[in-house]
Specification:
There is one protein chain. It is built from eight helices and five strands. A five-stranded parallel β-sheet has the order 2-3-1-4-5, sandwiched between helices. By secondary structure, it is α/β, with parallel strands linked by helices. It has a single domain, classed as Rossmann fold, CATH 3.40.50.
């Protein structure tokens, strides 16, 4: 089976990243897509440590810890179901989201697995959206919904000084 255009682009991007000894997290909501990516990675980057975390992974801690502790380049493939909560992957600097998710909060939560407390480096996030596809329409729909929310609700206030907005909370905690 030939690789998809999306997998080919991923391989091109990863060539430079892993050559520079960087770590990468690749997310998809489709385990079957991750399996195709896994085969392509084993073929093109056999020397790069490869880890996998899906809903079928019984011991989630083992691949996460191995990825975190591996020196040099490394790639971990993570399904939406497995990566949604309870893991930290802050040794990575690159995140690839292979497909758009209907819920932007879930997508943000996936990225947060890398961009967390303990992350010492900049995090680069790539959303791989195929032009003129359902994926592109999903992204356009999400952008329209975000714009509508901003117009109806407006900008949310900066809550860093929560005590100014909720003085009764300050009295409870203080």
């Amino acid at each position: 089976m030939t690789a998809s255009g999306k997998i080919n682009v991923l391989l091109e991007r990863l060539a430079e990243i892993v050559a520079n000894g960087r770590k990468v997290v690749v997310f998809s909501q489709f385990v079957s897509l991750l399996e195709r990516v896994e085969g392509a990675l084993q073929k093109h980057f056999p020397e790069v440590p490869l880890f996998k975390l899906t809903g079928a992974t019984v011991d989630r801690a083992t691949p996460v810890e191995a990825f975190q502790k591996a020196g040099g380049a490394g790639i971990i493939l993570v399904s939406l179901r497995a990566g949604g909560m309870g893991i930290t992957l802050h040794s990575a600097e690159y995140v690839f989201l292979l497909d758009p998710w209907w819920n932007p909060a879930v997508e943000a939560q996936a990225v947060d697995r890398v961009h967390r407390i303990g992350q010492q480096k900049a995090t680069f996030v790539y959303r791989m959206i195929a032009a003129e596809t359902v994926e592109a329409r999903v992204e356009a729909l999400k952008a329209a919904k975000a714009e509508l929310f901003a117009r109806v609700v407006g900008e949310l206030p900066d809550m860093s000084d929560w005590g100014q907005h909720f003085p009764s909370l300050r009295a409870l905690i203080g």
